[in-house]
Amino acid sequence: MEMRASEEDIEIGEDMTPSEIPLSYALHDSFLHSHCSSCFSRLPTENFTQHHHAPTLLYCSSICSSSHFSPAELHLLHCPPSSDLRAALRLLPHFLPSSSTNRICGLLTNREKLMADEEISAHVRYGAKAIAAARRIEMVENEKNDAVLLEAALCLVLTNAVEVHDNEGRSIGIAVYGPNFSWINHSCSPNACYRFIISPPDNVLPFSDESRLRILPAGTKSDNGVHNIEFPKGCSGSGPRVIVRSIKRIKRGEEVTVAYTDLLQPKEIRRSELWAKYRFICCCTRCIASPPSYVDHVLQEISTSNLASSSISSELSFYRDEATRKLTDYVDEVTAEYLAVGDPESCCKKLENMLINGLLDEQLEVREGKSQLNFRLHPLHHLALNTYTILASAYKIRASDLFSLHSEVGGLSWEALSMSRNSAAYSLLLATATRHLFCFESSLLVSVANFWTSAGESLLSLAKSSAWDSLGKCGFPVLNLSPLAKHKCSKCSLLESFEVNLSFGQDQIRKAGFDSVSSRFLDCIGSLLREVWGFLIQGNRYLKMFKDPTDFSWLGKSVDIWDFDTHNDVDFNCWTNQSVSGIEALGNSEQWRTNSFQLGVHCLLYGGFLAGICYGPHSHWSSHIRSALSYEGK
Question: Which InterPro entries does this one have (predicted)?
Fold first, then answer.
């Protein structure tokens, strides 16, 4: 099945469906005590603290509690993880006695393919038995459980359920939607995305007049925009809603596609994940491109030194595959240790050492010469991008820990500032790197919006750091961070574009011109970004390799990109015991702080403009960005 643009061309940044109500949904077990089991909104703290040990279902209102489906669901809470089982149980009221086990409610169950896998089939059979046992609590006399149908229901959930993310980006549960959403196929170069609406039933956000169904199943005719086939209704208006939105221009009759997996991964990983969950091999234009696209090439590029020049391509491929596996295992190991132990400093040192020195492999030797191999990630390798994300987070947490422990002038206050700088630098590198990839693959728009927003927040956090306040005590002026209205830029008009996007939506996006806004933004921040970048990367051996974070053309040149000469670098960590020397080395602190703030405002506004295209003017992203920008004080 597939969905196509029905009656007209669809421009970039337009809603293509109304808010779709789920057929079934369930919170993940870890959020049962903090979120409403019906609408998924967060509960007031006093409502759930007393229940944090006992498994139960909690609700934010009497309206939501009325959607409690059955006592059988409570029984399934004792079979963790239970979200798949509870979602399958909630689907059963939609089933007809004669329901096929291949397609239920218009959705493919994939039962035959899933049950052919030994591990998955064991999980499905166990889950079906647990659902059957739970249903016996409320079954009427002579009613029986159909084991095959229960297995099919669980397979339907495994195949069609999507992860529901809250306003903080956390996956808090799953939901199964009807064909208007579930029939939209996957592509690694999609032309649409989707957003969730998580809101109490009495606080549903308004929708524009254009939020109507503008896509139809292939081959289906419509009358006045209404399709002529009946689909099952959702769960009485409850549950998290979903809206599909265009991120490219879609011609009338063109298929609408979304991404089922992370697009910032190379082809083989994407295909592996899609097969593991959905049992299909992606054959989209990006996956079948030969040779691979530039984006897929750099996402898996690894530099291998000491490999004999006579090595054949199959041998080179083998070593690179082994290197990818070992580097992935290493990053996973360091990240797991960081999450378990909570030592961000150790995490940063290990990951940056891996980025700089690569991974020496004493076990793999080249057949000719017996040289030790050394593997380094291309700066745009998918694992490098993931590492930048981890480093930005770890440096931020390290800075927060230091600020909370030490507020005196100098000492660890300067170390905290250094940690904040590094966090902002990695966030900014992620933004510029993904924008570079976006120039070759426009479906990465959602990632670009998220990373520019994060970079803006990180830069504003740096500008508001209390470490700057300590400079005032040493005779330096303290920057007064004034309200947003006083920081309008006459060169790029980003603030106006962002506010127009919020007020008027897609018509104004087309009028402003996506390419035009992006071009003005990059031209405006050019010199400012380079000045701030030089400040951010002082003392960082890896980041100083990027002379200009917006210019990645040097990566394609036949030069040694692994030049980590540090003779002229300043290490901010050496200032921890020499605060006066550190201040003198820092120079014009007020100007650097001002520049960081101004760049942060630009990044956040640009991220907000892009987020408006991806999620619409009523999304939580728009409100979040406006809130982050509108503040007063130091």
Answer: SET_dom, SET_dom_sf
d(CA 418, CA 536): 8
pLDDT tens profile 421-454: 999 999 999 999 999 999 999 999 999 999 999 9
Say whether the peptide bond before residue 292 is cis (omega within 30 degrees of 0): no
Determine the 3-state secondary structure of 200 from DSSP.
Answer: coil
**How far is 417 from 467, CA to CA, in rounded Å?**
6
| Cβ atoms of 436 and 546 closer than 8 Å | no
Positive or negative, the CA dihedral 301, 307, 309, 312 is negative
Expressed in percent and rounded to 5, the helix, strand and coil fractions of the chain are 50, 10, 40
3-state secondary structure of 159: helix
CA distance 125 to 141: 24
Residue 465: strand, helix, or coil: coil
pLDDT level of residue 470 (50, 70, 90 thresholds): low
Q: Under DSSP, is residue 537 helix (H, G, I), strand (E, B) or coil? A: coil
The half-sphere exposure of 91 on its side-chain side, counting CA atoms within 13 A, is 34
What separation in angstroms does the CA of 427 have from each of 21, 43, 424, 527?
35, 31, 5, 18
Residue 4's beta-bridge partner residues? 216, 255
